[in-house]
Design brief:
heterodimer, A: mainly alpha, two-stranded antiparallel ribbon, two-stranded antiparallel sheet, globular, B: alpha/beta, six-stranded mixed sheet, five-stranded mixed sheet
Chain lengths: ~650, ~290
């Protein structure tokens, strides 16, 4: 739900903009929910290392992808030169052969060897930068830059150390502080007067180097089934040690920017969501990671992460399981090993606008029933517990309210309005024209204008191309064309970035024989059909993203008016966990930062209320809920 | 301010030329034919290289002369580049600017605007579970600052303590804190607090936004400084008046809706305003009081 990502980004930029030195995010790959901040850029080696580990943990391992991760800029996600270039350079400087070891492991497709080689290479690179800093102590600026590089690489190990060896993490943290301090004694303007504190520098460096050598460059790594940056000594002490779920650098689970406008049918009819319990509760569930299991739950993924505002999240990206932003292979090994179909079959995330008109469900129409589809998402795709009937009913009640954006160029029956452009009108004629090469059918045969531009059937139109493994695996359901102007790219695999490209493909594939003008007209028609009125949420000084969040959470909480009197412990607990957790995370996005503690106080009250619910202290809960509402009302004007 | 640091800076004022080797060579066009901008490495230097490409292309188009930029190793190198003429214009914090102004007459052109203001503050951040409630509670604790020459990451946080009568302006902060670290930046300093490595961080008011949302719930601030004039864009003395004027106008044009997207390539402020030295006079005074300037 978090609609505050833009704020995060701009605040983050500002803070970076006033930093006294190069920003190196020592922070780790945080499972910070959908409220994740825009990441500070990663060092190429650290980026490639964490992605390599992530991909080594997938089943099956895509060795080609790992090789690209190590040797390219990952489609521009890595700034500057790829990891391979830098590792080769470091090898040349230090007389090591880490890159060769990596290449050998890659060629042999040996996961254990690649884990060992990349871990050693990363650790050794940190020590090399520390050595460079030591050699540059006469030039504090240069030494500082080398320490920054070393810290940027350490970032790839930091969360593994922090989570499994807190004492070690603390000692190393202090060593980094000592190190940074030791070269910054001499001020901004550079100096010949006072050298860096060599003694402090070398003792801190020695501590870091020793820990790194011991834990990330051992003579041999113990065998393991999962690859994570856990210090070897800790792993030897506890072979079951593991980190909280994490995503590889470059992943993006932030909201869309700009944020789509949500059109809900009951709102169009002037009904207050607070009056429709099932819908309000379903709205909460749609935003709740609590209905999923790990790793999705800990990562803060919810239905709304991919389908925020009922639309497709075109920026959603997880390295290794998303071929490009806006796509994901949900039935691989990452989210639920039991559900791993051992096929690389990622799909573009579809918009859910007009969901009640677009059965069957799934790009390949694998479920006729939305209820079956929803249960499958919760239990199989994202490893959640079996949902209660209320959970399924509420989610479906909410999703059935998703309306299409109003189509400004269409009549109710799907025909173009007379005010549409002449090109679009010519395109409409082509759209409904029967083509012999399509067995006498027209585009409109499947994308029926009178039925929301779909026929609710599954067809194999050859769009799977050579990707179809069998004669029956290339069939996909007919997508609606409504709203499509705002949901590029197109097709199940997102291969086309414009509607014009889609038209060109259809023309060529089906031998329609359209000339350029006709293709242009048909494109104009698709654009007219696909246009939605006011597709994006408008924010201003008053209507901020945080304000939107406050109002949504308030709607969610209104279901307590039903759940508490009904003494529904299970669902009240789920609601309170979701809202209190969301509120804490979203507090960081407030534009009125000085009132942040008030938001956190409200969240704390909700946690207390949850305790009462768990204890079934219902009388207490009634009072606490009333008190909460009074407090929320009192704070309301400051919550922005 | 530790005696050693004070002494060092005073010496540094006379030793600027020694850092000249750090700055890249000036691009090979004639002195009057263009502008060269020094970018301080406040963001990932490799990201900055991409930013420089975008912003210099814009400025070249607007000003009508070739504009080039380079990333300096640190503030020192940027100031030195201005002094030696290797750069014509540099981005700079308030404190480096007043040094450059006092030492060789660097001129302020523009100031950043953020959230409708051309000032910001420093804050002292602690962990909520630290038990630290008042400034006095900080005595004997460990502290992380950004850098010894940072207005919001050191000078103004010290001024908070001095204004509260807890520290003599010229005193070594070690008499108050058990340990003092210069972490290298706001990010590192505030992370040190969030991770429980130190008790307090003296950094920009916006630094907590560099933490994850979950970490942000663990910290609070106990005191705030007086307003600090925001980061500036400054010029070497005797830069051609027409060039200066054209540059200022081109930068001010970044405030227009059609150009706003370019602001993210110059450290991401909300915009720029014209600035004059008057607003930075207090920084000079505080720097003198703390022994940073003679």
């Amino acid at each position: 739900m978090s609609s505050c990502e833009q704020l995060f980004t701009c605040l983050q930029r500002r803070v970076q903009g006033v930093l006294a030195a190069a920003v190196v995010m020592i922070a780790v790959v945080q499972p910070a929910a959908a409220h994740i901040q825009a990441e500070a850029p990663w060092h190429a080696i650290a980026y490639a290392y964490r992605n390599t580990l992530f991909m080594l943990n997938l089943d099956p391992v895509d060795w080609g992808l790992i090789e690209r991760m190590l040797t390219t800029d990952d489609g521009g996600r890595i700034l500057g030169r790829p990891a391979s270039d830098r590792l080769i350079e470091l090898d040349q400087t230090a007389g090591t052969a880490h890159w060769q070891a990596i290449e050998t492991a890659l060629m042999a497709e040996n996961a254990a060897a690649l884990h060992a080689a990349t871990t050693r290479a990363l650790s050794s690179a940190i020590r090399q930068h520390l050595a460079n800093a030591a050699a540059a102590l006469e030039q504090p600026g240069l030494a500082g830059a080398e320490i920054d590089q070393a810290q940027a690489l350490y970032r790839a190990l930091a969360d593994g150390i922090r989570e499994t060896d807190p004492e070690g993490f603390r000692a190393l943290g202090l060593a980094w502080l000592e190190l940074a301090s030791s070269v910054r004694q001499s001020g901004v303007i550079g100096d010949d007067g006072l050298p860096a504190d060599r003694e402090a520098f070398s003792s801190a460096r020695a501590l870091l180097a020793s820990y790194l050598s011991q834990n990330f460059e051992p003579a041999a790594f113990a065998p393991r089934g999962r690859y994570e940056p856990i210090p070897e000594q800790r792993f030897l002490a506890d072979p079951f040690a593991k980190m909280a779920p994490w995503l590889p650098p470059g992943s993006d689970i932030n909201d869309q920017d700009p944020l789509p406008r949500l059109v809900l049918n009951f709102e169009e009819q002037g009904i207050d969501e607070r009056d429709v319990f099932l819908v309000a509760f379903g709205d909460m569930l749609f935003d709740s990671p609590e209905i999923f299991g790990d790793p999705a739950k800990s990562l803060g993924l919810a239905c709304s992460t991919c389908h925020n505002r009922s639309d497709a999240n075109q920026r959603f990206y997880i390295g290794g399981i998303s071929p490009h932003p806006g796509a994901i292979d949900v039935d691989g090994s990452f989210f639920n090993a039991r559900f791993n179909d051992h096929r690389s079959d990622p799909l573009d995330i579809p918009s859910l606008r007009g969901l009640r008109f677009t059965a069957p469900y799934g790009r390949d129409g694998r479920f006729a029933s939305l209820r079956d589809f929803t249960r499958n998402v919760i239990v199989n795709e994202f490893k959640g517990p079996e949902p209660s009937p209320l959970i399924l009913d509420a989610l479906i009640a909410y999703m059935l309210e998703f309306d299409f954006l109003p189509a400004p160029h269409l009549e109710r029956d799907g025909r173009l309005k007379v005010t549409a452009s002449e090109a679009a009108k010519r395109g409409e004629v082509l759209f409904t024209k029967a083509f012999p090469s399509m067995n006498g059918q027209s585009c409109a045969s499947c994308h029926s204008p009178g039925s929301h531009f779909t026929d609710n059937h599954v067809h194999d139109i050859g769009s799977a191309g050579t990707g179809a493994a069998s004669g029956f695996s290339g069939a996909f359901d007919t997508p609606t064309l409504l709203g499509t102007l705002h949901t590029a790219p197109y097709f199940h695999d997102g291969r086309f970035s414009t509607l014009a490209e889609v038209v060109a493909w259809k023309d060529e594939t089906f031998g329609l024989g359209l000339d350029e003008a006709e293709k242009s007209d048909l494109t104009a028609y698709l654009q007219a059909v696909g246009e939605g009125a006011d597709p994006y949420q408008i924010f201003d000084e008053e209507a901020t993203p945080f304000r939107l969040m406050v109002e949504e959470l308030s709607v969610f909480l209104s279901t307590l008016d039903t759940l508490i009197p009904e003494r529904d412990r299970e669902h009240a607990d789920l609601l309170l966990r979701t809202v209190a957790g969301d509120m804490e995370l979203d507090a960081s996005a407030m534009s009125n930062r000085d009132a942040r503690d008030k938001t956190l106080t409200l969240a704390e009250r909700l946690w207390q209320l949850r305790d009462m619910v768990l204890r079934e202290a219902w009388d207490e809960a009634v009072v606490a809920w009333k008190d909460y509402q009074e407090m929320a009302d009192a704070y309301d004007s400051e919550l922005r | 301010m530790p005696e050693s640091t004070r002494r060092t800076i005073m010496k540094a004022l006379g030793a600027l030329a020694l850092t000249a080797g750090i700055a890249p060579l000036r691009p090979a066009f004639a002195e009057d034919a263009g502008l060269t901008l020094a970018f301080i490495p406040q963001e990932n230097p490799e990201k900055l290289l991409g930013d420089i490409e975008v912003i210099t292309a814009y400025l070249s188009g607007r000003i009508g002369v070739p504009v080039q930029g380079f990333v300096t190793l640190d503030h020192a190198a940027a100031i030195e580049a201005l002094r030696s003429g290797t750069a014509d214009i540099s981005f700079a914090g308030a404190l480096p600017y007043v040094f450059a102004h006092e030492i060789f007459g660097a001129e302020i052109l523009l100031a950043e605007v953020y959230r409708g203001s051309s000032t910001y503050t420093a804050r002292l951040f602690v962990r909520k579970d630290s038990g630290i409630e008042t400034l006095a509670d900080l005595r004997g604790k460990t502290a992380a600052f950004a850098d010894p020459i940072s207005e919001s990451g050191y000078l103004y946080p010290l001024d908070i303590l001095a204004s509260a009568g807890l520290l003599e302006p010229s005193a070594d902060p070690h008499v108050f804190f058990r340990e003092v670290y210069f972490a290298g930046g706001y990010q590192q300093a505030i992370q040190a607090v969030a991770n429980g490595l130190v008790d307090v961080a003296g950094v920009s008011e916006f630094s907590d936004m560099l933490l994850t949302p979950a970490q942000q719930t663990d910290i609070r601030w106990v005191a705030e400084s007086r307003p600090i004039p925001s980061h500036a864009v400054i010029a070497r003395p005797s830069l051609d008046a027409d060039l200066k004027s054209a540059f200022k106008q081109a930068m001010l044009d970044l405030n227009t809706p059609e150009n706003r997207y370019l602001l993210k390539h110059v450290y991401g402020p909300d915009g720029y305003v014209l600035a004059d030295h008057e607003a930075y006079r207090e920084v000079t005074e505080i720097a003198r009081r703390y022994g940073l300037l003679g």
